[in-house]
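Case study.
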Amino acid sequence: MNVQLDLGAVLAEWPLLVKGIFLTTFMIVVSGLLGIVLGCVLAWMNTQSRKFQMVIASVYIEVIRNTPFIVQLFFIFFGLPSLGVKLSPLAASMLAMTINLSAYSAEILRAGIESIPKGQLQAAKSLALQPLQTYTNIVLPQAFKNTWPALVSQIVIVMLGSSVCAQISTEELSYAANLIQSRNFRAFEAFFVATLAYLGLSLILRTFLDKAIARLIFKSTHG
Amino acid sequence: MVEFSLWDILRNLLLAARWTILLSLIAFAGGALVGSMLLLARLTKRLSLEWFCTIYVKLFQGTPLLMQLFLIYFGMALLGIETTPWSAAVIALTLYSSAFLSEIWRGCIQSIPKGQWQAADSLALGFFDQMRYVIGPQAIKISIAPTVGFMVQAVKATALASVIGFIELTKAGTMISNATFKPFVVFACVGALYFSLCYPISWYSKRLELKYSVKH
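After joint prediction, the assembly is written out as follows.
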C-alpha cells in the first residue's frame, strides 16, 4: 500500500483558500458582534419580571440550543423563502450564526447576571437608576467580565460551526476546500489544509478575544 | 403528481430519526470508552502521555467537526480501507466525543480539593484505591450533570453526518424536502424532532445540576 500526499496541488490554489479565510473571518466578526448584542437583549428579557417577555426569551433560547446548527441554517435558507423571505447564502449564513450565538450567549450571560451580588442592584436602586440604566451600566459590565472566557469559547465554536455554511453554497473556507478537491481530486489534502487553517483561525480568534478585546473592554489588568 | 400529507413527511422523518438516535448512542458510548482511556492516560502523570492527550483534545476542539468527518471519510479511503458514511461517521463522532468527555471529566477530577488526594496518600492507598474509594465517588457525582449535558451536543453533532451522505434525520429532511417541495414544513418538523430528542436531556441535565450543586 502506498499513500502519497500531494499538498502542493492544494497549496497551488492558495487564492481560493485565502478568499475563504477572509469570508469566514468576515462572517464571524459580523455575526459575533450582532450575536453578542442580541444575547444581551435576550438576557435582559430573561431577567424581566414581565412573564410574556421572559417566556418568549426562554422559548427562543431553548429552541435554538436544542436543535443542530445545520437544521437552523437549512430552515432559514430553504424554509423561509416560502414565507417570502429570500436571503442570499451569505446573509442566511450570517443570520443563522447570529441567531445561534445569541441564544448561547444569552444563557452564558444569565449565569453571569445571577452571580452579581444583590447589594449591587440595591445600590443602583438607591441611586434612582432606571432598570435599563442599571442593566447597561451596572449589571452587564460585571456579567461580561465574569463570563468573558465562556463567551470567547462560544464565539470560537460558532466560527468552527460556520464550516457547515458551505452546504448552502456560502463561499467560505470549507467551500474553498470543496472547490479545490473537485478540481484536483485531492480530497484529503484539501480538507487537511482547510482543517489546519481552521485550527489557526480558532487559535488567533481566541488569543485576540482573550487578550486584545478583554483589555479594551475591561480596561484593567485583566488577561 | 403525488401529494404528501404532513403525516407522510413526519412518518418518514421518524423512521430516519432512529438512525440519529442509534448514531448518537454509539458516538456517546464510544466516546465514553475512548475518553476514559484518555483520562487514565492523563492521570498517570507521565509527561509524554499528558502532552499527547492535551494536543488530542486541542485538535478536536479547535477544528470543525465537519472537517474531521471529511478527513476521516477521505483519509480512510486513502489508506485503502473501505469507507462507508456510516463507519466514517461513527469513528469521527466517537473521537470527537472522546475529546470533549475526557476534558469534562478531567475538570471534575481537578476540582476535587488537594487535601483529599493528600489524605488518601497518607492512608497509603495506591493509585487505583485512591480513585476507587476517595476521588472517584466525588468526581463522578460532579461529572454526572455535564456528562448528560454533553449528550445533547452529541445528538446535535450527528446532524453533520448528513453531509457525508449518511441518511439520518437531517439528510432525510433534505431528501424529503426535495421530493415534496415543502422545505418550510419539512425543516420545521426536523427541528421539532431534534428538539423533542434534546430538550428532555437538557432539562434533566439542568435538574441534576441543581440536585448536585450542594452548597459548598
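Observations recorded in class. Chain A is about 80% helix and 0% strand. The longest helix of chain A spans residues 14-47. We will return to this complex in the next lecture.
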